[in-house]
Design brief:
The chain is of the alpha+beta class and about 250 residues long. Helices cover about 45% and strands about 25% of the residues.
């Protein structure tokens, strides 16, 4: 098998595993999946909102899940690690699933969208966008967007700082797609500039400062005096300097 086919087959298998785990641990709040190949086998890190439901009583649920992954997807010696998400309101996948569940319970789509945006921003997110698409009010498909804060739509910042989540709400009139994008609070954009004071810059970048702080004070004092003399010279309409003015007196 060619290398390209191997990469495609491996990624397809990982996507199928993610869809399977999303369905199996939906009650626990699926928040993400990380798969790493190790010399001992395959380590599967599962991020959930309620890890206790995934582990089960005496670990029976996680044992059954491990056996299913090994038999159905062909991973060598899978080892599942369950981690609890730090803040569910800042996890895009969890918020997308909660939004879909709210729509299935009968919430109006505008109320559900604004409520989701408000919860995300109150948790400290830098920005978020919620997109609800489907047959919302009639027979025609349309999209509604709810946006607040700062969000990136393209480029390297989107790949680094934007978390993406998607869920589907099954209603009587059809399915409604719920997309949630969150910019993390610790996002450092290229346009963010911090101006340091002279003392902070001397501590952070000592190799750029070959003189002491006291010497810098003396230099700044001399520059201030020179600037004052130049200003006094410019303010005189006849162009006389201070020495010429004193001689004239």
């Amino acid at each position: 098998m060619a290398s390209e086919r191997k990469f495609v087959a491996e990624n397809v298998r990982r996507v199928l595993l993610k869809e399977y785990l999303m369905k199996e641990v939906s009650r626990a709040g699926f928040g993400g999946l990380d798969i790493q190949r190790t010399p001992m086998g395959t380590r599967v890190t599962l991020i959930t909102e309620r890890p206790g439901l995934v582990i089960g009583r005496r670990g029976q649920a996680i044992k059954n899940l491990t056996t299913a992954i090994e038999n159905n997807f062909g991973f060598d010696n899978p080892q599942i690690e369950v981690q609890e998400v730090e803040d569910p309101n800042l996890n895009a996948q969890i918020m997308a699933e909660k939004l879909a569940f709210a729509l299935e319970r009968g919430w109006h789509f505008r109320r559900a969208g604004h409520s989701t945006v408000r919860r995300i921003m109150e948790s400290g997110a830098r920005g978020c966008q919620v997109v609800i698409s489907g047959k919302l009010t009639g027979q025609r498909h349309r999209c509604e967007k709810f946006k607040e804060g700062y969000i990136k739509f393209c480029g390297e910042p989107k790949l680094q700082f934007i978390d993406h989540g998607y869920a589907v709400a099954k209603l009587k009139q059809g399915v409604i797609g719920c997309t949630v994008e969150i910019m993390r609070p610790d996002a450092k954009l290229p346009s963010d500039i911090t101006v340091l004071s002279r003392t902070e810059a001397a501590i952070v970048l000592p190799e750029l400062f070959t003189v002491s702080v006291d010497e810098l004070d003396d230099v700044e004092g001399e520059m201030a005096e020179e600037s004052g003399i130049m200003k006094d010279t410019v303010d005189r309409p006849n162009g006389d300097t201070i020495e010429n003015a004193e001689e004239g007196q």
